[in-house]
Structure formats: C-alpha cells, structure tokens
C-alpha cells in the first residue's frame, strides 16, 4: 500500500543497540522503486561498526525481510532494530540435529527422586528388609544381621521368589527370632514402630551399634554390653558366648566378617552330614551282611560267591539235616521251571485248576 502523503516519514528505534529513536523523512517522488530495507540498514548502521547480518527489523512485532520495498511501508511507521542471537535454531540452543523423539524421551523418563540418606538409614531399623513394611512381631534376623518380618520371609521361601541377595536363606534354620523393645508413647511415622535398647534406652536410628544375642533373641546396644560385662543376657540372664552376638545392620567390614563366619558354619555342617551319611551307610552294610549270612551253614554270605570264584548255588550252603532240593526251591533263581512267570507271580500251567 503506497502512502498518500507526499512524503514518507518513518521512525527507527533500537533498545538492543541503545540508540535513540531516529526520524527519517523521504520525499515521495524521489523514492526509488528499488529502495529496500537493506539500504536503510546500511545507512543507519555502517558495516564497520555492526555486521548487517546481526541486525533485523520488526514492524508491529512482526519481523521484516531485508528485501522489503520502502514504498510499501505506511507512513509514520515505527521500525524496531534488533540484534540477532546466533546459535542453534533460536530456540534455546537446539542444533536441529535432534529428532523430536529425543525431547519426548527426555521428559517421558521420570528422574528418580533423591533419597535422604538419613531416612534410608532409619528405614533399615524400622522396616522389613524384604517387604519394606514396618516391623511387626514376630521379627527375625538372618545370619548377616538384617531385620525381617517372619511372615514375609516364610512366604518368600514358600513361593521361592526371594531376591538373589537373600539366596543364602534356605529355611527356618537360617532365621533367628529376636525380641524388640518398643519406645513407649513414641509417635508412629508411616505406621512404623520405633524401638530401643531395653536397658540404656538408646533408639534404633542407625547412629548406635546393636547386637542380637542368638541364644535368647534379645537385642542390646553395644554400649550396654561394653559397660556391663556379663556372661549372661542382662534381660533374661541366659548365658551366652561371644560367638552368639550378631551385629545388627553392620557396616561393610562387619557384614563381611559375618559372611565368612556363615560360610565356615556351612562347611562344618556339610562335614557332619557327610560323616553321618557314611556312618549310616556302614550300619546298613553291616545289617545287610548279617541278614545275608542268616541262612548260611558256615558263615559265608549267601548273596555273593562262596569265596572260591565259583558261581553261587543255594544247595551248596544248605543247613545240616536239610534237603538240598527243598532248600534251593526257596530261591526263585535256583530252580528251572516250564511255568510262565510274570513280574509279580508264577502262572499256573495250562489245564491246572
């Protein structure tokens, strides 16, 4: 649209370049049809001071091309000169090399929330290590000092879905029942009950060391056992030895010691089983030998050869005053018969009632 005014008057301002507003007046008859916006840029901003490709004009918030003809600009228009920020696609650093899926996947995957180490440490003392539910009676520990709800652990054993980290728990013999003392009047957090040492009152919060006594199941603080040295439990007065103490939720070094101790006990138990099996095998062999010589005439085993390398014959070892044929008939392999035999009985001859 050509201006009806004899003269073309426009205003140019630039907040980015901190240049005051300028007023430009062009006489309408003298405006060349080839006068474009790039010529205006060259006259206002010399190339030596600011590169022309770093500047662009907008009119009413819309960007204008450098090839825009000034004859089509309405009079009294206000141009705004901006500095062009180089880089990416003008959308905050994007290089346009990424596909849209990259951005969708980036925001689709939810980043895990940061876990408070204090809460994580406290959880090991008030929650079951398997189900992560609050501890409730009956409570047991394994041989590495981890707390479990017995119900959850037994259910995991029955369903055979225990995690690999608890694969060393094979049955009830690997569970040690413990007795926990609740803090009276303590407020429950998320349904979890807080526990304490029954003698010193120290809380299960991960800041203090505790031991479980395997012989009676009471859990006492290390401070209590150190100050009051006694060969018996200070709660139930049941005697125990040093090896009966299991540290609860110990550090890496303490857990490694318990692990080595557990492996030694397993090797020892396997050795006892092997000896017992061998002993039982010898007893059975002796019983079989005695059973085999029960019908022997001279103490020889009737199940084997008679000692001279010849094939065993029942008639050769018949007792005194016994008919050899009658004695041999006791053994099915000692007589030949035309009777047809099955796996369970002898069938009668044809025609016999």
Automatic annotation (TrEMBL):
<dbReference type="Pfam" id="PF04641">
    <property type="entry name" value="Rtf2"/>
</dbReference>
<dbReference type="InterPro" id="IPR027799">
    <property type="entry name" value="Rtf2_RING-finger"/>
</dbReference>
<protein>
    <recommendedName>
        <fullName>Replication termination factor 2</fullName>
    </recommendedName>
</protein>
<dbReference type="InterPro" id="IPR006735">
    <property type="entry name" value="Rtf2"/>
</dbReference>
<dbReference type="InterPro" id="IPR013083">
    <property type="entry name" value="Znf_RING/FYVE/PHD"/>
</dbReference>
<feature type="region of interest" description="Disordered">
    <location>
        <begin position="270"/>
        <end position="312"/>
    </location>
</feature>
